TrEMBL record:
Keyword Zinc-finger: yes
Taxonomy of the source species: Bacteria, Bacillati, Bacillota, Clostridia, Eubacteriales
Annotated Zinc finger DksA/TraR C4-type domain residues: 87-121
GO molecular function, one term: zinc ion binding
Keyword Zinc-finger (UniProt): yes
UniProt organism field: Ruminiclostridium sufflavum DSM 19573
Keywords of this entry: Metal-binding, Zinc, Zinc-finger
Protein name according to UniProt: TraR/DksA family transcriptional regulator
Zn finger spans (dksA C4-type): 92-116
Length: 210
């Protein structure tokens, strides 16, 4: 890329960065004022239904998302300006080919050519983001106490059997127990029992078969 084009895109990127910086400043000022106006007057929200604060929460989340989007554009511009200094501006980061001049005119901070950008967007759409599983575990899934696939005798059953001999829990921690004698007996097996038929084990069922 010759010197004239380099200076042209440098000015174009600098102007765009200035506009975005000004926009971010206005968003911060207006966002803080709006958040202050929309914030509930109560000292605590513990006794309110979450839906009562739905509009306020949506407004805050929307403002934050817009600011993140503008900041991302500003980061792309900073990356493009750095490439202009190193002489790698206008090269696709994926295929290493030249990005068309028309695309750079429309989007000076472009990192990929059109074909690579389409492939990148398609892969992001078709590939589910599984990173959340590293943070959130399945609430009703099998954990370290229930790693076996069968339901005959799992880790949680072992824990319940051991707790019959004593634990640091008190009756009030578990609920439904009036004293320790009831808590540390077979009454522990009645947790989760809704009807009497729920107490029938697989072994009892097999023994009564003809």
């Amino acid at each position: 890329m010759d010197a004239d084009k380099t200076n042209h895109f440098k000015e174009k990127l600098a102007d765009e960065a200035e506009k975005i910086t000004e926009t971010l400043g206005l968003m911060r000022e207006n966002g803080e004022a709006k958040m202050s106006g929309d914030s509930p007057e109560e000292l605590s929200n513990y006794d309110n239904h979450p839906a009562d604060l739905g509009s306020e929460l949506y407004s805050v989340e929307m403002n934050m998302a817009l600011k993140v989007h503008e900041q991302s554009k500003l980061n792309d511009i900073a990356r493009a300006l750095s490439k202009l200094e190193t002489g790698s501006y206008g090269k696709c980061e994926s295929c290493k080919g030249d990005i068309p001049y028309e695309r750079l005119e429309a989007l000076p901070s472009a990192r990929y050519c059109i074909s690579c950008e389409k492939e990148k967007e398609a892969s992001e759409i078709n590939t589910p983001d599984m990173s959340y599983k590293e943070v959130f575990d399945a609430p009703f899934g099998r954990k370290y106490l229930n790693k076996r696939e069968d339901d005959e005798f799992e880790g949680l059953d072992q824990l319940n059997d051991l707790m019959k001999y004593g634990a640091a829990d008190t009756p009030q921690d578990m609920g439904g127990y009036e004293d320790y004698e009831e808590f540390y007996t077979n009454e522990l097996d009645n947790q989760g029992i809704v009807e009497e038929v729920d107490k029938i084990s697989n072994q009892q069922y097999k023994e009564q078969l003809p």
